[in-house]
Amino acid sequence: MKPAQIYCWITLGVSTHMFGGTSGCTNEAPGAPSTTTAEPGTSEATLATSEAPPVTDGTSGPPTTTDATGDAPTTTGTSGTTGLAGYCGDGVIDPGEACDEGTANGDDGACTHQCATAVCGDGLLWDGVEECDLGDGNSSGYGGCNECQWGPRCGDGLLDEGHEVCDLGDLNGTGIGEGEQAPCRSTCTWQGRLVFVTSQAYSGALGGLDGADIRCRERAKAIGLANANTFRAWLSDGVQSPKTRFQQVELQDAPYILGNGRVLAADFAELVDEGPRTGIAIDETGAMVTDTFVWTNTSGLGNVLHPVDHCDSWTSSALQYGAFTGRNALAAEQGPEWEAWRTERQWTVALSFPCSFESRLYCFEDGYVPED
User: Fold this and answer.
1) FRET pair for 160, CA 20 to 30 Å: which of 96, 299, 316, 362?
2) Sign of CA dihedral 23, 26, 28, 34
3) What is the DSSP letter of 137?
4) Which has more confidence, 367 or 279?
């Protein structure tokens, strides 16, 4: 026989002067109507209940709620416990990120702003690690970035034959030269107006002064000079001379220079007032030439030297005509012979020869010279 089930309860009552309550047991199932008589001293005679007290799980704290799925909601997100989605820069390496250093992320550091690990070839310069990074443009050739370190280039202070005519490192582009050298442009070309003695010799039949200028320009073009069409010959007939033919640009910082960068004179004024600082000893090909004669008929001041002896205005090689030449340079620039060469302006006034004799020409880059 199944034993009877007993159900017990406690009810509370409140009076004007005190708290009170009742308790009891019954064999009636919870939910059935019941009537309880209040204890003496309370203000309520009876306390009716229509349903049993709520059932709890025995734990303390507020009741637990559930979501629509029946599961308790979670407060854990992908990058912590805030419930927010992770992002690049939060300091946590989230899915799809190779790194994340938070506020330390930077395109000049080990972890970029895109949370990617810095590598050579990404086009971003990693400070203190890479000298250069041209991305897809990295190469091992001249001026290239090889394995994110600079290869031979303009500005490294080393002369790279075939690519540069000068390289003074940090002095490039400053307008400052070293010693007797001219300034070097930022493009590793000499900053100045080039002067050379021609590698070829000619009779006095040059086709006039214009014909002599053309020969200078031909020689300049032969070595690929961009400013080739500005060259003029240091030559005078009976009327015109370098002093009247040359554009004497004195305001531009572009000295007369030789092919090796050595300064011949700071400007036209210095050239005619003091003479050249050195002999014009380099031809257009870069070869050294000394003790050779050059057609001039020009005084040390840049004027006409002789009104008649100029190979019939430089159109004839007949024996009856003659003209003055200059001696281009000495092998040793010291001693009495050198001093006489400079003092007497032998570079432009030396000996007279018949116009059938073959002499060279001095060619001067003339006028304003582009900076780069």
Assistant:
1) 362
2) negative
3) G
4) 279
Residue 358 in tokens: 């073959």
In the predicted model, what is the mean pLDDT of residues 75-104? 78
In Å, what is the CA distance from 3 to each residue of 6, 25, 27, 332? 9, 16, 11, 138
34 DSSP 8-state letter: E
Q: Residue 335 is part of a domain; what is its CATH number?
A: 3.10.100.10
Q: Which of 369, 367, 364 is nearest to 196 (CA)?
A: 364
Residues 240-278: tens digit of each pLDDT = 999 999 987 565 678 999 999 999 999 999 999 999 999
Could you give the CA distance from residue 303 to residue 234 in angstroms, rounded to a whole number?
10
Judge whether 299 lies within some domain: yes
Task: Provide the residue range defining the domain that includes 356.
Answer: 193-365
* CA–CA separation, 43 and 18 (whole Å): 10
262 token code pair: 């050595």
pLDDT above 90 as % of the chain: 62
Q: In the numeric block, which tokens belong to residue 314?
A: 């430089």
Q: Give the pTM.
A: 0.66
Helix H or strand E encompassing 325? strand 322-327
Q: Does residue 185 lie within any of the structural domains? A: no
- As a whole number of angstroms, the distance between CA 87 and CA 227 comes to 58
Residue 44 has pLDDT above 50, yes or no: no
- Do 340 and 282 contact (CB within 8 A), yes or no? no
